[in-house]
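Weekly structure sync, notes
Attendees: PL (lead), two postdocs, one rotation student
Agenda item 3: pending single-chain targets
PL asked that the sequence for the first pending target be pasted directly into the notes so everyone works from the same version. It is reproduced below exactly as submitted, 222 residues in total.
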Amino acid sequence: MQIQQGSSALILFSGGQDSTTCLYWAKNRFFNLVALSFDYGQRHTRELESAFKICSMAEVEHVILETSIFNQIGGNALTDDIKIKDMGKKDELPNTFVPGRNLYFLTVAAAFAYQRGIHDLVTGVCQTDYSGYPDCRDETIKALQETLSLGMEAKFRIHTPLMWLTKSDSIHLAIKEGALEALGQSHTCYEGEFPPCGKCPACKLRSQGFQEAGIADPLLSE
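Predicted structure, written out during the meeting:
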């Protein structure tokens, strides 16, 4: 997917490891960048605090939209008081899966971008090292890109820099794009703890990635 130099982009920004890497990737490729975060009734707000800090560091405009739809629907460990479990059987979705979340967020992001004349969207979804979420798959993103373009009569392009990278690969990309220091402010832990709990699936995946990359996690050295 060719990127037009000097164009604008909107990044879906959670304040986590992957979206932080993508924010710097996009900052190095687009003249104007807007970071969009969602306050959707998640169990903790630490990730939004991280998002604010990182956008300030990167000097990127940061917008937070409030939506309680997923909190009202419930039924998952990211919005309800449910114990977070490790991955179960191979074909079983983890209880941290929020049905429709990425689809909804990208749709709202496209509507927000449309009003600003922005057609490039960036998201940190990944099919290689992911938690089994079907809305992180490449085929899902490509189908949604087509749907959004048709539904708004605007040629949207959804960029997924991490789609085919392992977690260790994404860390090397973060270093290349100048995002390593910002990763020290990022938040990954599902439990919302700092220091991170080190036990939830997100913490384990992050730890494994840094170990395989042979890089010290700046979050733990702060």
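Discussion points:
- The domain at 8-213 is CATH 3.40.50.620 (Rossmann fold).
- The chain has a mean pLDDT of 87.
Action: rotation student to compare against the earlier draft before next sync.
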